[in-house]
From TrEMBL:
UniProt keywords, alphabetically: Cell membrane, Membrane, Transmembrane, Transmembrane helix, Transport
Membrane protein topology class: Multi-pass membrane protein
CDD domains linked: MFS_MefA_like (cd06173)
Localization (cell): Cell membrane
Domain Major facilitator superfamily (MFS) profile: 11-400
Example of a GO MF term: transmembrane transporter activity
Highest rank taxon of the organism: Bacteria
Region of interest: Disordered: 403-428
Gene3D superfamilies: MFS general substrate transporter like domains
Chief site of localization: membrane
Keyword check for Transmembrane: yes
GO cellular-component term (any): plasma membrane
Protein's name according to its UniProt entry: MFS transporter
């Protein structure tokens, strides 16, 4: 039976449901957390601290977190993390009920939720290839479904639900998110157990973290995959920083119209995730990644030149489609070619590089808009994406991608020949 007609295993359905419910809870908190902070203060710096606290774990512990995930049982890491996040949310819920909620408390909660997200996301990314037997076609199908429902849950349903729940009381969205984490933990707990990666020689955690980072830097395909979100985040954050101002001053639209622009972008993301596997089959994964990167750059260029909301909405939808397809193809390729014992570290290294790059986009955008014009950051973002497309096109070419897949398959066959069936050994 070929990969194209294989069915996704039953365990994937439980993992998919768990991540969808968790993403819905994340969407609720994405809207509710800043609104909760807004009930306590109008100080922009205090609000920024709460928002930034959620991203700090990736910057501070990205490499070490990946090394820990590679040491731990991945299924257990996921369900324990979600159970801990469910318990954590009881603290601000109780504080809100007792009228003891504060900005420092919200910042600590945001940080710890982000830390939990680091461990859960890294472990889930590392667990999926084992669950699907590292089959490239199954990985693309699975990631397309995960990406699509994540966008729908956290981008469409979650934020308005968070706003509506907050209107019922300050504790309601916190408790709703806690329930989503608890449900996710129960589902993940029921997933099939997978054997841990073969333990490496006794090394310090820092040395293992460096090994994961150097593995990415030495591999042309993985380096190309890491550069895309790094440059992409600079460009996209630069765009998002001035998007509201651009929409108001240049397009003449208000708050409701701006919300529709964001909806157009999310809709494009769903479409892109849906056609990612088709693009990968028709063009080859490497060529498809190059095309989606070029589409993103050209779409932002179209946004910069847009003179009315309709053209701008179309440009954002096309950009979203490019991002959606990329977010399916790139992780699927990484999961297919990275050895199991390095998956956590490679995943966290790539994610950390992207997260570290994002603040530069905000600073660059603010400076360009102040010094020149609100369109300048958009032109710059488009230029960065198009240059990145050219630079990485040879790094992730079809030839390199196919060679990496064949090398991974040979390694897996050699490992399988040298050791007994790991699933049977684990069952014993």
């Amino acid at each position: 039976m070929t990969s194209d007609v294989k069915k996704l295993p039953t365990g994937f359905g439980r993992l998919w449901t768990a991540q969808t419910v968790s993403s819905l809870g994340d969407g609720v908190m994405h809207a509710a957390l800043p609104l909760l902070a807004l009930t306590l203060t109008r100080d922009p710096m205090a609000l920024a601290v709460v928002t930034a606290a959620g991203t700090l774990p990736w910057l501070l512990f990205g490499l070490l977190g990946g090394a820990l995930v590679d040491r731990w049982d991945r299924r257990r890491t996921m369900w324990v993390t979600d159970a801990a996040r469910a318990v954590l949310l009881a603290v601000p819920a109780a504080a809100a009920a007792l009228d003891l909620l504060s900005i420092p408390l919200l910042a600590v909660v945001a940080f710890l939720l982000g830390l939990g997200g680091l461990f859960f996301d890294t472990a889930a990314t590392a667990y999926l290839p084992d669950l699907l037997g590292r089959d490239p076609a199954l990985l693309e199908r699975a990631n397309a479904r995960l990406r699509g429902t994540q966008t729908a849950a956290s981008g469409f349903a979650g934020p308005p639900a968070g706003s509506a729940l907050l209107a019922l009381g300050r504790t309601v969205p916190l408790l709703a998110d806690a329930v989503s984490f608890a449900f996710s933990a129960l589902l993940v707990r029921s997933l099939p157990a997978m054997p841990r990666p073969v333990p490496q020689a006794r090394e310090s955690l820092l040395r293992q973290a460096r090994a994961g980072a150097s593995y990415v830097l030495r591999d042309q395909v993985l380096l190309g995959l890491a550069l895309r979100p790094a440059v992409g985040n600079i460009a996209f954050v630069a765009m998002e920083t001035v998007l509201a101002l651009f929409a108001h001053d240049r397009l003449g639209i208000g708050t409701f119209g701006f919300g529709l622009l964001l909806t157009a972008e999310a809709t494009g993301g769903l479409f892109g995730a849906g056609i990612a596997s088709f693009l990968g089959r028709r063009l080859g994964t490497g060529a498809a990644l190059t095309c989606t990167a070029a589409v993103e750059g050209l779409a932002i260029l179209g946004l910069a030149t847009a003179s009315n909301p309709y053209v701008a909405g179309l440009a954002l939808a096309v950009c979203g489609a490019g991002v959606g397809a990329t977010m399916v193809l790139a992780p699927s390729l990484r999961q297919a070619i990275v050895p199991a014992h390095l998956m956590g570290r490679v995943t966290s290294t790539s994610r950390m590089v992207g997260m570290c790059a994002a603040p530069f986009g905000a600073v660059l955008s603010g400076w360009l808009a102040t010094a020149y014009d609100v369109r300048t950051p958009l032109y710059t973002a488009a230029g960065l994406l198009l240059v990145m497309t050219v630079v990485t096109s040879t790094m992730t070419s079809n030839r390199r991608v196919e060679a990496a897949r064949q090398a991974a398959a040979r390694t897996a066959e050699a490992d399988g020949a040298e050791s007994p069936d790991p699933v049977q050994e684990h069952a014993r």
